# Entry
Amino acid sequence: MGSINTNIPMLLLLITLVDIISPAQAEELTLLIDDYPPYIDSTQPNQGFWSEMVILAFERVSIQAKLEYKPWGRVELELNKANRVSFGWVKDSRRLKRWHYSETISKGAAGFLVKKSNKISWSTYEDLRQYKIGKTIGYSFGDEFKKWEPLLNIQQVPEDRQNIQKVLIGRIDLFATEIASAAMLIRKHLTEAEKNRLSFITTPALTIWSSHLVCSKEYEKCPYYINKFNQGLRVLTNQGTKQKIINKINSLK
# Structure
C-alpha cells in the first residue's frame, strides 16, 4: 500500500489563502452609446476621444468600462428605464429633471453646415424661420434652440451623414450640428469637390456645450457611478492625460 500524502491539508490551506489575498477583479460596467465621430467612434482603436477618456477614468477607479452601441434615440429610452449609464450628453432642462450628470468630459461648439453658394447668415432665431433646417434625431442644442424648435421648419433624420447629403443636394438649407463631428464626417466621406461647396456658420454659435456621463435619478447605483467617474476624471486631469486627449480632439478641427 502506498503512503498517504500528509501535505494535502497544507496545500489546500495555501490555495485558500492565495484566493483570499488575491486582488479583487475589476468591477465591470457596460456603457450604452452610439457613434458620434470623432468623439465616439466604433471604427477607431480607441473608440473615439470621449470613449478613451471615459474608459481611462473608470480604469483609474478599478472599473472596467465596456461600450455597447445602439441608436441615440434607443439609448435615451433605455436610460429612462433607470438601469443604464451613458456618456456624451449635454444638459437641458428636461433631462436635468430625470438624470444625474457627471463633471464635464469636454466642451465644444455647435453651429450650422451650409452650402457656400447660399450665403446664409443669422443673428437671431427669428432670422432662421425662413430656412429648412436639418437635425439628427436624439441630438440637443440647449434650451434656447429647444424653445424655438416648434417655430422653425426642422426636418429630422437618424444619421448625420443623411443631413450632410441633404445640404449638398439642396433639400435643406442648414444642418444644425456639432462642428468637429460634422467636419470629421465630411473629411472622411466627401470628395474634394463636395468639401469645397460647404462651410460652417460658427458665429453666432448655435450653442456652447459640455458633454457628460449620465444615468437616471431612478437608478439606485447612479450616484455611485457618477461619483466614481468624477474621481477617475480628476485623476486624469491631475496626470495631464485629460488635456492630452482634448488636444487631440482640437487638432481635428
Summary: Residues 108-208 form a domain with the D-Maltodextrin-Binding Protein; domain 2 fold (CATH 3.40.190.10). The chain has two domains: 28-106+211-250, 108-208. The CA atoms of residues 134 and 155 lie 5 Å apart.
